[in-house]
Amino acid sequence: MRIVILGAGNVATHLAKAMDENCGNVVQVYSHTLKNAVSLAQTLRNAKPIDDFSNVTRDADLYVISVKDDAISTVVDAIDVDAGIVVHTSGSVSVDVLNRKFEKSGVLYPLQTFSRDVAVDISAIPFFVEGCNEITSSLITDVAKRLSHRIYYADSAQRKQLHVAAVFGCNFVNYLWIQADEILKEAGYDFKILEPLILATLDKAVRVSPLKGQTGPARRGDIGIINTHKRLLTLDKATLYQMLSQCIMKKYDIDYE
Amino acid sequence: MRIVILGAGNVATHLAKAMDENCGNVVQVYSHTLKNAVSLAQTLRNAKPIDDFSNVTRDADLYVISVKDDAISTVVDAIDVDAGIVVHTSGSVSVDVLNRKFEKSGVLYPLQTFSRDVAVDISAIPFFVEGCNEITSSLITDVAKRLSHRIYYADSAQRKQLHVAAVFGCNFVNYLWIQADEILKEAGYDFKILEPLILATLDKAVRVSPLKGQTGPARRGDIGIINTHKRLLTLDKATLYQMLSQCIMKKYDIDYE
Description:
Two copies of one chain form a homodimer.
Chain A: E1 2-6, H1 10-22, E2 25-30, H2 34-42, E3 48-50, E4 62-65, H3 72-78, E5 85-88, H4 96-99, E6 104-110, E7 127-131, H5 134-147, E8 151-153, H6 156-187, H7 195-207, H8 210-213, H9 217-220, H10 223-232, H11 235-251
Helix pairs in contact in A: 10-11
């Protein structure tokens, strides 16, 4: 299988390496910055770096568009393919943006955050596959199965839900960790001391469920502790504390007096 | 070292076993429910189960009060000790509740959530020590060091801050995981699919910092995606999404139009 990678960012970098090892030959790496294409191509077995869309080969088997969401349509407009499959890797963009031009198109969305220089175990990452039709979907699934043992199907609507869930479960969670970090720093501690407790909370959420794993003053309806905590906090943090405590008490039908 | 454990709940159970293995002999286990005292004592080498405070020996070296916060003072009133150290294990209760009666008193607070039947690696748990004076503090630290390699000092004010940080970093975080779980379920997925992404987010927060690790639509100021997501959500979830997005944009000085 001859593969073309379009993009040289974090996702493109990790996918290109994994695909070159497990799925076939990455023959070209495109980036609009040649330097980036070169440095990614160097890590692969036999890939040509290019920075001009007109040099993209027409006869590869798989084209992986892994660029910023709003640059996907630019790539679509700029390339022509004979018979290969064209996929993008975005959680938020519909497959239709590819569908309107390419016969075989789809999505290969890894639900993970990538940093260029941090190695990740691709095989443990959940990949979500969509194809413009069943045959294409199953071809993309075959590729995905060589990358990871966690392959799921997700149409564009489901991918949007996955993205929203990740915003709650990771982005918003990280914002709460910022609050915890600031409180800990003020008391002279490092955020790291919370790690074992966070891991135990996550473990319980995964093994049982977050709904059953909820603990804390709000879950117990302990208004005394809630008020003590609010007095310790700056106005912004106290407002957030109050709001989230009320959400939890509402969820579990606990009266807030 | 002769140790008396007062309480037979989750914390008492895990501490009793670890202390019996690493710190000395647990000679008595008190619970107001004899059955619970018996079943904990059975897992220890040579501990007597008791349910009557008048049977608590006066001449142990260490008394560990590990009961619900509002039951601590009841235990304090009910027991008499000759010269041993008396500690409680609560994050929210001041050492003064012991101080007023016992000569050597302190706190040994494990920052972890315990489930009775789930084994935990005690040696990785951060313990926070306080003593009523320096000598007692250093004696309690000696005991703690036999349990874990993560021993910190925390006075009552610091312990309160630790507790607030844990509410943000674990209890409130778990509530957001409930939201993610519900969204995923609706789309046909299990909460488990988010685990790799959450672990990567936590890893970045611990290795770098949550402030630097923040990603997502709000961090990018991507109002388009924020509005799309809000339309996908129920009113309660959309309100929470909006509020947390605004917090993040405020934190990073991003204009919300």
